[in-house]
Amino acid sequence: MASFLAWLSVLSPWLQIPLIIGVFAAAVGILLFFIEIAPRAGRVYTIIRLAACVLFPLGVMWALQSWWWAILAAGVLGLLFFWLDYRAKAGAGYLFQLVGFLAPALILLLVGLVFPVIQTVGQSMLNSSGTRFVGLDNFLWIFTRPQGIRTILNTIVWVLIAPVVSTVVGLVYAYFIDKSRGEKVYKILVFMPMAISFVGASIIWRFMYTARPAGAEQIGFVNQVIVWLGGSPVPFLQVEPWNTLFLIIVFVWIYTGFAMVVLSAAIKGVPTEQLEAAELDGANAYERFMNVVVPGIRPSIVVVLTTIAIASMKIFDIVRTMTAGANNTSVIANEMYQQFRSFEAGRSAAYAVILFVLVLPLVIYNARQIKAQREVR
Amino acid sequence: MKTAGRKRILLATSGLGVAGLALAGCTGGPGVSGGDGDGGGDGSTVVTVYGTIIDAEQELLEESWADWEEENGIDIQYEGSQEFETQIAVRAQGGNAPDLAIFPQPGLLADIASRGYLVPAPDGVASNVADYWSEDWAAYGTVDDTLYGAPLMASVKGWVWYSPAQFADNGWEIPTDWQGVLDLTQQIRDETGEPPWCVGFGSDAATGWPGTDWIEDLILRQSGTEVYDQWVANEVPFTDPQIASAFDEVGKVILDPDYVNAGFGDVGSIVSTPFGDVANAMASGDCALTHQASFLDGFLVEAGAEVGEDGDVWAFILPPYEASDATGSTVVGGGEIVGAFSDDDAVVQVQEYLSSPEWANSRVSLGGVISANSGLDPENAQSPILQSAIEILQDPDTTFRFDASDLMPSAVGAGTFFQGMRDWVNGASTEQVLDQIESGWPSE
Predict the structure, then answer these.
(1) Chain B nearest CA to A262, separation (Å)
(2) Minimal Cα distance from A341: which residue of B?
(3) B381 to each of A350, B61, B316, B356, B376, how far by Cα in Å?
(4) Residue B292, beta-bridge partner list
(5) Confidence at A103, pLDDT banded by 50, 70, 90
(6) Residue B133's closest CA among B337, B404, B381?
(7) Which residues contact B443 (CB under 8 A, 6 or more apart)?
(8) Which UniProt keywords apply (chain A) (predicted)?
(9) Pairing of β B151-156 and β B330-340
(10) Peptide linkage before B104 cis (omega within 30 of 0)
(11) Which of A29-43, A62-76, A219-233 is most confident?
């Protein structure tokens, strides 16, 4: 991988662009191709799968430069495919095919997620160079820092406000846009911020919020508007405790589109018979919305809420880019990064563990809701 | 149904084609070793150098050794990155370290050296260091009594910039002690009715660093070199009264709404003012005084001011705390140290050349920087402020101390210290700020 990138770096930019796009398309192509042939029986597909057994580990080896990984991948894939083809001869065994193609992912998850979690918990009990066991000292240090509690509280404020606002606004959008003409255009406009990276959005909004002293030329859009309306410029990112809210606005701006798209799909699934029946019973528009539509899409709302809650719990890029944690806006992920950068692995890991403990209930709840929703359908 | 089947086959074959293409493209292209860089030498031996210097500065750096490359047949490939501080540790651990690294913080050099990645300095470098650098400077490249590298460039901090014409018109005098600075500030305030100082801490994620320079200057002047050195080593913690008193002294200037923030607003605007923007206020005359390192020169020139004793803007070094201890300037400064990850002959040659007066003169004559190399001819410096800085560095009476935030472990030096300065000018109590900065010290 490194050598490929090194080789790429000496080419002219005009060659690099098509190459990068080509490689990306190739990767996506391979993925789609395998998804396409996964549930099929037949000799040709067996051969292709056999080839995959050989090529995939080679690819792993080349990308990760590691023998162990390649051996692991090869063994796992080979055994599975062999067994799969054996079972799936009759064209049945779809479940096994599925398992077969999920197996690498599952194993990678186990190795790449579960193991690091255990490792991180271990690291959080060691000192910065990982040479001495210090028990819970790192956690004590976090909670006794002058601003340690504030950091954790900020994260919780994010989780309480951001998902609710995004979901409510997204739901309102979804309901009204569904009924209006030019639905697609509006949807694209609302969804557009989702296509911007968080860092990009943060830089845009930092510009929007920029304050210059009263009387000087304003370069921030928001303050320019305030000045036009006769107010004096507000240094948005410095006014405690509201600055955290101004950061949350950026997040909401991005995630509203996501909430809208998911909820709009759910709203389309609410049976019209119910709505008509409610109308005949004399319910007005607001009552219909609150008593028919919302209960009808409740599972989707919960999933959207929890998904956004998890995203806001892990929030890092907006805070890092816009304030870097200044003026009491810091959040756990930002502190974690700060400690990691300063060779403080133990303290960084302790922050990571706290974040993990906070996210875990949300993730479990979310997974169960998704499952419940499937069963309803 | 049939068409669907066809479509599938088409998709599958196209997928296969794409996969084949991809695999063909993946056979490890040519020039895996990174190919040939352009320019410099005949490319027979390549020495890679990694550092923080980028853009225009990088071009001058490459220009400074271009002739030497030709003569010696060594191709120096320089790679500059703003992510250097994060990346160098990763690269050292990952086994693809550069041959030479230009460390902007001795603390980082010590971190890397103590983990056993660096090669001790070759004899040629050691003798150059002995001949051309003061003991203070040699100590910054030394970890556990082993010299790992020579300094490269230097900068002098603690200049107070002012307008000579404005001073002459109003009869204001350049102060000779810290109390004089406070009196002058009050005098300017009384006579103009405007805040005299402009201060800018803004620097993206590193916002707050200009504040650390203020504190370092005051600790060095008020409590002396011994306390300063103990403070760097955390033998004198941030919570010590001597440190708190330096904060109080600095606060007399930059926390007083009567004294700041000329041209930008009130005390609260310090954090949101980018450190380079004060140059505009100085150039336009909105601001009478500002405290910043010698590099402000470049920003001032860009803002359209002429820098010089008879120009629009000139500078004096922040005076001593008591006028009686004036036996020579006491300055805080910064600089780079060149450390080596390899001891190949070519690398040793380059490292020796970079520690020589020849290189220092070659680079300084291209403008914009100075070096503490005593073999440097001050005449080579392009601007009056740099000449003045070189004179200070070469003066045997000068007490020089490296920027403390660069010497401290980065958890404090580039972490809580910066953050503490931000919170402090935003109104947090000194006691709380000192507690918070101290809390960043590594466990061991």
Answers:
(1) 29
(2) B86
(3) 50, 15, 18, 17, 9
(4) B159
(5) low
(6) B337
(7) A127, A128, A134, A137, A138, A141, A346, A347
(8) Cell membrane, Membrane, Transmembrane, Transmembrane helix, Transport
(9) antiparallel
(10) no
(11) A219-233
B340 with B97: CB under 8 angstroms? no
Radius of gyration of chain A, Cα coordinates, nearest whole angstrom? 26
Helix, strand, coil share of chain A (percent; to 5): 80, 0, 20
Assign B23 a pLDDT band (cuts: 50, 70, 90).
very low
The C-alpha R_g of chain B, in whole angstroms, comes to 25
Tell the residue number behind the tokens 């929030």, with chain if given: A315
A-contacting residues in B 127-156 (Cβ below 8 Å): none
Mark yes or no for CB contact B89/A145 under 8 Å.
no
Tokens of B291: 């405290």
Q: Rounded distance, CA A307 to CA A366, Å?
A: 7
Nearest Cα residue to B269 out of A213, A348, A154, A113: A213
The full DSSP string for B203-269 is: -GGGTTHHHHHHHHHHHHHHHHHHHHHHHHTTSS-TTSHHHHHHHHHHHHHHT-TTT--TTT-SGGG
How far does Cα A354 stand from its chain's mean position? 19
Q: Which residue has tokens 């069963």?
A: A375
Percent of chain B that is helix, strand, coil (3-state, to 5): 50, 15, 35
Chain A: give the shortest CA distance to residue B428, in Å. 10
Tell me, yes or no, if B89 comes closer than 8 A to chain A by beta carbon: yes
Distance separating alpha carbons of residues A128 and B437, to the nearest angstrom:
18
Asked, as a colleague might, if the bond just before B96 is cis with ω within 30 of 0, I would say: no
Write down the pTM of the prediction.
0.74
Locate all alpha helices (DSSP H) within B29-154, ordered by sequence. Answer: 55-64, 66-72, 84-94, 106-114, 123-132, 135-140
Q: What is the rounded distance in angstroms from the CA atom of residue B2 to the CA atom of residue A199?
A: 47
Say how far apart CA A44 and CA A42 lie, in whole Å: 6
In this structure, the number of other CB atoms found within 10 A of the CB of residue A219 comes to 12
The residue ranges of DSSP E strands in B252-342, in sequence order, are 290-292, 314-317, 330-340
A216 contacts: CB under 8 Å, gap ≥ 6: none
Residue A281: which residues within 8 A CB-CB, separation 6 or more?
A: none
A83-97, B2-16, B45-59: least confidently modelled range: B2-16
Chain A contacts in chain B segment 167-206 (CB below 8 A): 204-205
Which of A127, A238, A325 is facing B419, going by the closest CB pair? A325
pLDDT band at B70 (very low <50, low <70, confident <90, very high): very high
Using a CB–CB cutoff of 8 Å, tell me whether B80 touches chain A. Answer: no
Adjacent-strand bridge partners of B274: B202
Q: What does the block give as tokens for B47?
A: 């020495």
C-alpha span between A16 and A14 (Å, rounded): 5
Q: And the tokens for A14?
A: 């005009």
- Put simply, the answer to whether A238 touches B426 (Cβ < 8 Å) is yes
Token pair for B41: 């030498």
Q: State phi, psi for B395 to the nearest 5 degrees.
A: -70, 120
Q: Could you tell me the two tokens for B223?
A: 């409590």
- What SS3 class is residue B329? coil
Instruction: Work out the number of other CB atoms within 10 angstroms of the CB of residue A282.
Output: 7
Q: pLDDT of A151-186, one tens digit each?
A: 999 999 999 999 999 999 999 989 888 877 888 888
